[in-house]
């Protein structure tokens, strides 16, 4: 059984008990425990059921790579599924329940799948649920849905809050092990702004557990003094509990910080997503141990050798009294030694290598540990718990030579550098034959804007697996990072690890190598998705030779752990089945996030009222206090009309129109989209975006333009003005500003990335007021400051100046057909100008008008409105806007689309006006019927 | 019907819409559907109902 040892445990506080529950059972752990450590301390080895076969599963690993020990955490608004027990810090009142079983963890009906497993191979669903067709919808899918998924989805709104934070640095170091700290000290000493992220709550990584010696003392001494030195450097920021989970273009890195994960309800945000811009990224993510593929390697009690060692050294928890170690390398002997030194029994180390000669095995031998060279675990015995192992020859086919009783198995198939962050932005890998692992290929790094390497790997994640190698590698990486930043490396203390040579490992992908189908059906590669050696071999036989296809066919590596333990073993098995080299098969693509990120954390503060914040014009408060009836326009609220006492909305609209047509009206047009387009290629760019020519527009002039999508359909319209030789300002529709800005950026970033153009959406920087009506000029003259005469400011021109002392741009444009000026002022001056215009206009009959009056007046003038006259199926030619389409231009977006037969057809419906014979208003959405019926039996129509 | 309003300026209903061969059918009377059943007759006209020459803003 697994239990708490009476001494040791470097991370626990024995004086502080912590109460928690698992499946309703009350348990007690210690402060500093992870949930996994506390469960093991309470002899809870069985923690879940597997996804497909519902096999009993226990804790395998001790960190982020854990595939099995996922639990539901919390209740109600704090319920969260699929939480890894190995990375969950224990807290008082923690309530966890196991997943994927019915009715209970101990007795699960779904385990029936396990007994028919031979009939549920890879691709079973694809092959089986094809026929009869109606069965999919009514029988197969409901049943599969019922049994699919691991944890349950939360049912109530998240009670926690989350937030974003932003940081900027020269060097971001991901990983706070000895390699990360070594590099941080070098970069910090050189004066770089450094941020170091560590996923756990502790610095130093594996080194203290592995008993590494640095500068002649235990690693912990060096780690503590290095942290002390780093804390004194003002430009160095250290962050624990923060997982750097994705590297993106231009040095953009995302990280998730567990702020109050372990102190729920204390008022702080549960998690914080850091959005970091850095010049360079230094990855020091370490390595992950690989399981070995032997029959029964998923039975609770079979764990990674490194995890066994972690539990013993960090938390004083022994997974079992008698632990058999099975390995193909020297490192696993550290586990055997740690167990022995903790007073536990190691009946044997089963070493697949024929010759065992290293220093670590020699130490183990000296401690009296029996070493079986050239041997394999043929199968693990036990159901919900390991009871023993049958051993045989690694070179053989599985004949059992001996049974060894034990209650835990510590396995090691070698180590895989964590190359995820290196790979996210395109870093390539090379195969290291000596250690049988993929490592970053220094010749093919992910590159950044200037062609230099964005990511610099250091330590174990760069294939430097021992402490001495990792420290030396990290020192080198630190210096090259400093150089890459254009800084000078200063003399600073560099830790030196004691050499601890290890004998070569041996590639072992199947144990024993000649195992038959019966054994291979019980060799798990992917624990979480229940993919076995036999499944991958079946996929290869069925022609899935690409590793990406095999992954999708078998679901290898597609679970929430993203194959951290299974990928290399899986592709080695695939390579073997196809008689290919492992590097020839290659890896699947590493994509962010490295570990699952809480959706709430990605949403951050964007929920509830601020999911889509209401947008208000600078005069919004005035409108509200003057009785405006507001309507939504996109996320804006705009005055629809300003009803006076006793007026209906309709009456108010009519009054506003008549007043504007006979006196003067004010419209808050601030919501109009305003996008500055600037650069040497701006004119060329706008000529492609608009259907007419904008490059020829004179400075100080305005021109109405249309924008179409590639299909030729009208998408947005507005007035473009030219501010300077290389600068234009494009007005868009109120609802279209963000979409059109995105559209511009889409073309600039994806298609015409070499065009020298910048865009800026300045919609909210300006308040804009339309002054329209026969008295408009008189009002502006009364405010004074700018000559707005017909001669000085002709139609379709603009002028910059001071209007009543307010910096203003006055455009002579009209959407109402009246003499009209649209005045743009800095947003903060909007209300002041509005007040000035009202005061100056009082003598001229000024009154504000709303969006409905604007709509009616533009309809009286036959001006189209995007969204009314257009619906995504209308081209400008349909609307009689041929005059706004350049015939001379070689190309514009939509030109080719509009040349298509159907769009160029003379039979298209085209814009006209209608007047009822009796003067009544035609109903919205009415159709003009035609004779006959269409093939669907509907009345034919000829217009709408 | 893409836009339809009562014009207080012209004191009658005005509308814009898309019609097959529309610009060639000026002056023709067509029938529009009504939600309550039946139809309403309307004449095809220039969509610029007011000040077609733009004199009002040309001052």
Give the topology.
The complex is a heterodimer of chains A (944) and B (59).
Chain A: E1 3-4, E2 13-22, E3 25-31, H1 35-41, E4 46-49, E5 56-58, E6 70-73, E7 80-84, E8 94-98, H2 112-115, H3 124-128, H4 133-147, E9 162-174, H5 178-189, E10 194-197, H6 207-210, E11 213-214, E12 217-218, H7 219-231, E13 236-239, E14 242-248, E15 252-258, E16 271-283, E17 287-289, E18 302-304, H8 305-315, E19 317-318, E20 323-327, H9 333-341, E21 349-351, H10 359-366, E22 371-373, E23 375-382, E24 386-393, E25 402-405, E26 408-412, E27 415-417, H11 420-424, E28 429-432, E29 437-440, E30 455-457, H12 467-484, H13 517-520, E31 524-526, E32 531-532, H14 533-541, H15 547-554, H16 567-577, H17 582-585, H18 599-603, H19 620-625, E33 629-633, E34 636-641, H20 649-662, E35 664-668, E36 673-678, H21 682-689, E37 702-708, E38 714-724, E39 727-732, H22 737-751, E40 758-761, E41 766-772, H23 776-783, E42 798-803, E43 806-811, E44 820-826, H24 830-841, E45 846-848, H25 851-860, H26 895-898, H27 901-904, E46 909-916, E47 928-933, E48 939-943
Parallel strand pairs in A: 2-8, 9-10, 9-16, 10-13, 16-30, 18-26, 20-21, 20-26, 21-22, 35-45
Antiparallel strand pairs in A: 1-19, 2-3, 4-5, 6-7, 6-8, 11-12, 14-15, 15-16, 17-27, 23-24, 24-25, 28-29, 31-32, 33-34, 35-41, 36-39, 36-40, 37-38, 38-39, 41-44, 42-43, 43-44, 47-48
Chain B: E1 3-7, E2 12-20, E3 29-33, E4 39-45
Antiparallel strand pairs in B: 1-2, 3-4
Question: What does this molecule look like?
Answer:
The complex is a heterodimer of chains A (944) and B (59). The longest helix of chain A has 18 residues, at 467-484. Chain A is built from 27 helices and 48 strands. Chain A is of the alpha+beta class and 944 residues long. In chain A, strands 9, 10, 13, 14, 15, 16 and 30 form a seven-stranded mixed beta sheet that branches. A six-stranded mixed beta sheet of chain A has the order 42-43-44-41-35-45, with helices on both faces. Chain A has a five-stranded mixed beta sheet with strand order 3-2-8-6-7. In chain A, β33 and β34 form a beta hairpin. Helix content of chain A is 25%, strand content 27%. Chain A starts with a strand and ends with a strand. Chain B is mostly beta strands. In chain B, 0% of the residues lie in helices and 44% in strands. Chain B contains no helices and four strands. Chain B has strands spanning 3-7, 12-20, 29-33, 39-45. Chain B has a two-stranded antiparallel sheet. In chain B, strands 3-4 form a two-stranded antiparallel sheet. Chain B is globular, with a radius of gyration of 13 Å. Chain B starts with a strand and ends in a 14-residue tail after the last strand. The model of chain B has no long low-confidence stretch (mean pLDDT 95). The interface between A and B is large, with 57 and 50 residues.
């Amino acid at each position: 059984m697994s239990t708490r040892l009476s001494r040791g445990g470097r991370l626990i506080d024995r004086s502080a008990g912590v109460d928690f529950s698992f499946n309703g059972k009350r348990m007690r752990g210690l402060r500093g425990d992870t949930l996994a450590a506390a469960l093991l301390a309470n002899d809870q080895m069985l923690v879940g059921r597997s996804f497909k076969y519902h096999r009993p599963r226990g804790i395998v690993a001790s960190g982020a790579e854990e595939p099995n020990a996922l639990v539901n955490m919390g209740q109600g608004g704090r319920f969260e599924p699929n939480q890894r027990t190995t990375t969950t810090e224990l807290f008082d009142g923690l309530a966890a329940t196991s997943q994927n079983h019915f009715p209970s963890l101990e007795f699960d009906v779904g385990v029936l799948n396990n007994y028919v497993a031979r009939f549920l191979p890879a691709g079973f669903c694809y092959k089986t649920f094809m026929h009869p067709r109606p069965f999919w919808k009514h029988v197969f899918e409901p049943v599969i849905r019922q049994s699919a998924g691991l944890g349950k989805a939360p049912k109530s709104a998240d009670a926690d809050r989350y937030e974003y934070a932003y940081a900027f640095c020269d060097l971001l170091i991901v990983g706070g092990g000895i390699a990360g700290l070594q590099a941080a000290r070098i970069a910090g000493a050189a004066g770089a702004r450094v941020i170091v992220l560590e996923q756990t709550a502790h610095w130093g990584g594996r080194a203290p557990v592995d008993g590494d010696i640095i500068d002649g003392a235990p690693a912990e001494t060096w780690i503590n003094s290095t942290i002390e030195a780093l804390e004194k450097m003002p430009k160095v920021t250290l962050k624990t509990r923060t997982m750097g989970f994705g590297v993106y273009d231009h040095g953009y890195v995302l990280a998730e910080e567990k702020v109050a994960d372990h102190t729920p309800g204390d008022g702080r945000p549960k998690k914080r997503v850091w959005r970091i811009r850095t010049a360079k990224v230094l990855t020091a993510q370490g390595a992950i141990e690989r399981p070995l593929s032997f029959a029964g390697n998923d039975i609770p009690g079979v764990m990674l050798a490194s995890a066994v060692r972690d539990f013993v050294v960090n938390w004083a928890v022994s997974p079992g009294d008698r632990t058999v170690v099975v390995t193909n390398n020297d490192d696993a002997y550290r586990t055997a030694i740690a167990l022995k030194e903790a007073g536990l029994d190691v009946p044997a180390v089963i070493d697949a290598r024929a010759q065992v000669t290293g220093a670590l095995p020699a130490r183990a031998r000296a401690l009296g540990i029996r070493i079986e060279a050239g041997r394999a675990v043929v199968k693990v015995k036990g159901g919900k718990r390991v009871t023993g192992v049958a051993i045989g020859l690694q070179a053989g086919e599985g004949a059992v030579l001996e049974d060894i009783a034990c209650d835990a198995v510590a396995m090691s198939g070698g180590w895989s550098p964590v190359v995820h962050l290196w790979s996210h932005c395109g870093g390539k890998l090379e195969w290291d034959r000596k250690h049988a692992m993929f490592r970053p290929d220094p010749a093919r790094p992910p590159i950044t804007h200037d062609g230099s390497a964005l990511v610099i790997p250091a330590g174990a994640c760069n294939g430097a697996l021992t402490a001495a190698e990792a420290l030396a590698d990290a020192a080198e990486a630190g210096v090259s990072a400093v150089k890459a930043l254009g800084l000078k490396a200063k003399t600073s203390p560099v830790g030196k690890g004691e050499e601890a040579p290890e004998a070569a490992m041996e590639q072992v992908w199947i144990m024993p190598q000649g195992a038959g189908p019966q054994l291979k059906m019980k060799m798990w590669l992917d624990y979480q998705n229940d993919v076995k050696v036999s499944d991958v071999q079946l996929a290869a036989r069925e022609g899935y030779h690409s590793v990406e296809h095999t992954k999708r066919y078998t679901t290898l590596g597609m679970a929430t752990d993203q194959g951290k333990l299974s990928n290399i073993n899986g592709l080695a098995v695939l390579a073997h089945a196809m008689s290919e080299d492992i590097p020839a098969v290659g890896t699947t693509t590493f994509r962010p996030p490295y570990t699952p990120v809480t959706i709430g954390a990605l949403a951050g503060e964007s929920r509830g009222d601020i999911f889509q914040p209401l947008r208000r014009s600078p005069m919004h408060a005035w409108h509200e206090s003057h009785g405006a009836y507001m309507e939504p326009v996109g996320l804006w609220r705009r005055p629809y009309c300003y009803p006076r006492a006793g007026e209906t909305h309709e009456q108010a609209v009519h009054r506003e129109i008549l007043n504007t047509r006979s006196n003067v009206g004010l419209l808050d047009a601030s919501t109009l989209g305003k996008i500055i387009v600037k650069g040497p290629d701006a004119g060329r760019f706008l000529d492609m975006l608009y259907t007419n020519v904008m490059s020829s527009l004179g400075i100080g002039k305005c021109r109405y333009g249309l924008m179409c999508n590639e299909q030729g359909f009208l998408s947005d319209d507005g007035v473009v003005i030219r501010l300077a030789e290389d600068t234009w300002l494009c007005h868009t529709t109120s609802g279209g500003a963000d979409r059109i800005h995105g559209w511009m950026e889409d073309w600039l970033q994806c298609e015409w990335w070499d065009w020298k153009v910048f865009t800026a959406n300045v919609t909210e920087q300006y308040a804009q007021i339309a002054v329209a009506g026969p008295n408009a000029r008189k009002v502006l003259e009364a405010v004074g400051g700018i000559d707005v005469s017909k001669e000085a400011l002709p139609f379709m021109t603009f002028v910059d100046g001071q209007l009543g002392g307010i910096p203003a741009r006055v455009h002579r444009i009209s959407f109402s057909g009246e003499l009209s000026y649209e005045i743009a002022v800095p947003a903060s001056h909007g209300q002041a100008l509005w007040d000035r215009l009202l005061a100056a206009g009082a003598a001229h009959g000024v009154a504000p008008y709303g969006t409905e009056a604007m709509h009616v007046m533009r309809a009286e003038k036959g001006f189209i409105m995007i969204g009314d006259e257009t619906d995504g199926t209308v081209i400008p030619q349909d609307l009689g806007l041929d005059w706004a389409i350049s015939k001379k231009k070689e190309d514009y977006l939509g030109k080719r689309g509009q040349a298509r037969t159907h769009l160029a057809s003379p039979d298209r419906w085209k814009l006209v006006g209608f007047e009822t014979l009796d003067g009544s208003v035609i109903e919205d959405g009415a159709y003009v019927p035609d004779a006959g019926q269409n093939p669907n039996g509907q009345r034919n129509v000829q217009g709408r | 019907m893409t836009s339809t309003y009562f014009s207080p300026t012209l004191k009658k209903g005005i509308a814009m819409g898309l019609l097959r061969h529309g610009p060639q059918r000026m002056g023709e009377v067509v029938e529009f559907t009504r939600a309550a059943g039946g139809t309403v007759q309307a004449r095809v006209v220039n969509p610029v109902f007011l000040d077609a020459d733009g004199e009002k803003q040309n001052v």
